[in-house]
UniProtKB/TrEMBL annotation:
PANTHER family: ABC TRANSPORTER SUBSTRATE-BINDING PROTEIN, ALIPHATIC SULFONATES-BINDING PROTEIN-RELATED. Belongs to the bacterial solute-binding protein SsuA/TauA family. Keywords: Signal. This is ABC transporter substrate-binding protein. The keyword Signal applies. Coiled coil: none annotated. Residues 61-279 form the Solute-binding protein family 3/N-terminal domain. PROSITE patterns: PROKAR_LIPOPROTEIN (PS51257). It comes from the Bacteria. Residues 1-24 form the signal peptide. InterPro entries: Solute-binding_3/MltF_N. It comes from Paenibacillus roseus.
Length: 358
């Protein structure tokens, strides 16, 4: 398979520039301005440019983080997109906040998070050492506030004075605030318990908390163990999931080229899942222990709500993030204002514009 984004465009531009320079140089050197000599020289210099300027991706290891499901490593293998000219180290984190902590520590090159973690990371030392480079539009299913089997809680308003587990600095944090507001409660009206996804699920099932605000596999597992939805965030969240790259990776030409290639493959993977829903549902079922029909139904429902696709940075996406920041700032969860536009980078804008839409 041909490797996308092999910097061909860059090489062509450099070659064209060198062609002009070569003609002038030869004209001065031999006194006759020979077009043949200029053409020969331009070809040689173009070849040299290609050999010398194209990064050697074989020496690159791209460290990529992700949260829960879908598992890109399995997906790339199934879709036959794993023949990368560079190495990939995939790591799964319990939240996007932890991915950005890893980027800040230069332990990760690429992250995939919701809109919430970058806001907190931007207030850390060195502004978190990252830039948002792309938006992954997707569905907002499996983002829920759930209660355990047999709970006496019937509505969000019933949570007043009760313990509610949530994953800090994530979509769960944000949509729990919004759900409380929509039901006449504030953050101060509940006893919030900050827990990672797995511990939050354990707390819910043991009865240590009255409800759990979470996402992904923990919500799937909670349902399998009898938990039920108290409220859904599918109409609260924007569906914008952000791709962040470390400043260190963006400053490295070879890693930047590898990231460009990876974005193309990620887009191709999304297209593959749309065309192979039954096969992907089988894999999801195997990995999450969901019944196959339920996994397939979730895929189809998610596609109906919003197709997953990579899109370029837009003013609408930046405005959406600003709205989230304003909400979190208003309730005191964000302690400082965030310069939202400053954390975005359009370094891959042209590549993203050329990706195929679903």
């Amino acid at each position: 398979m041909k490797t996308p984004f092999h910097l061909a465009a860059v090489v062509i531009v450099i070659a064209a520039l060198l062609t002009g320079c070569a003609g002038g140089a030869n004209g001065g050197a031999d006194g006759n301005g020979s077009k043949a000599a200029g053409a020969s020289g331009s070809k040689e210099q173009a070849a040299a440019a290609k050999a010398n300027d194209a990064p050697d991706l074989s020496k690159v290891t791209l460290r990529i983080g992700q949260t829960g499901w879908p598992n890109w490593e399995l997906g790339f293998k199934e879709a036959k997109l794993d023949d990368t000219p560079y190495k990939i180290e995939f790591s799964v984190f319990q939240g996007g906040n932890n991915q950005l902590l890893a980027i800040a520590a230069n332990q990760l090159d690429l992250a995939a998070t919701s809109e919430i973690p970058p806001l907190f990371a931007a207030l850390a030392a060195n502004q978190g050492n990252f830039k948002v480079i792309a938006v992954q539009r997707g569905n907002t299913l499996n983002q829920e506030l759930v209660i355990p089997a047999g709970s006496e809680v019937k509505s969000v308003s019933d949570l007043k004075g009760k313990k509610v587990a949530y994953v800090a600095n994530t979509t769960a944090h944000y949509f729990l605030i919004k759900m409380l507001e929509e039901n006449g409660l504030t953050w101060q009206d509940i006893e919030p318990v900050q827990l990672p996804t797995s511990e939050g699920l354990s707390a819910l099932l043991s009865g240590s908390v009255a409800a759990l605000a979470s996402y992904g596999n923990s919500i799937i597992s909670a349902r399998q163990k009898g938990a039920t939805e108290l409220a859904s965030a599918k109409d609260i969240l924007s569906g914008n999931f952000l791709i962040e790259a470390s400043n260190d990776a963006l400053a490295d030409e070879a890693k930047k080229a590898a990231i460009a290639d990876f974005l193309q493959r990620l887009s191709s993977f999304h297209n593959w899942t749309r065309k192979n829903q039954e096969r992907w549902a089988e894999i999801v079922s195997e990995q999450t222990h969901q019944p196959y029909e339920e996994a397939l139904g979730t895929l189809k429902e998610g596609e109906k709500q919003r197709s997953v696709e990579l899109v370029p940075i837009s003013q609408e996406a930046i405005a959406s993030l600003k709205d989230v920041a304003d909400v979190l700032r208003k309730v005191g969860v964000l302690t400082e204002d965030v310069d939202v536009p400053s954390i975005w980078s359009e370094v891959f804008a042209e590549q993203l514009k050329n990706l195929k839409s679903p």
